[in-house]
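INFO batch 0412 | record 1 of 1 | parsing
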Amino acid sequence: MPRTKKPVPAKKGTVSKVSKVKRVPSKLSLPVLSPKGEKIGVISLQEEVFGVAYNAQLIAQAVRVYQMNQREGSASTKTRGMVEGSTRKIYRQKGTGRARHGGIRAPIFIGGGITFGPQPRSIHKTIPKQMKKKALESALSYKKGTDSITVVDGLKDLPLKTKLFAQMLKTIGVSKRALVVYGDETKMIERALKNIRSVSVYPFSSLSVYEVMAHANIVFTKDALVSLVSKLTKE
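INFO prediction complete | emitting tokens
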């Protein structure tokens, strides 16, 4: 009969099985302001989104990929086979005392082709989805730590006038270059904000690490912040 191994008893002071304990993240919070600058409530934030350690290398990588993808890669030059011109030999091979040439389209002549010039190419870069998510969370946590995030509610009740929205930003204390992030319920405010030179307007679904880091202040509408946190915690 084959020998069977006897079970090895656990050593004293050790645990054979470790039960997994689900970690419940602690809460952060931000005050919610009205268009008049009055505090009308408090919104809780997930620590896994706004309490992440600052990762400069990951943020720099995400920004570099974003900037590369803004380029088209459409620069184009013509080689000597693409430019217009005769293919006739411009003068005889020998007896002139000059260098030998085969055609007027050579790169050394004015109007000739370009040697090793740029050609259309794809310069699109990608970054893993989880790395992109972690970079955005790190950037948002950095802005939260520097008190650069403001949450506003009630903007959909304001008349869509640029002057009123510019005054609203001054009232809530946003005077420098600002990024306003709106949600599905407040997408109409883009019409009033897009004409302000120092303000950029983006939906929460298109928020990028570059935009977060490039602006001194970030103004979230309440519905945009709730939707963004919900999106990041589900991914």
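INFO post-check: The chain has two domains: 27-71+125-234, 72-122.
INFO record closed
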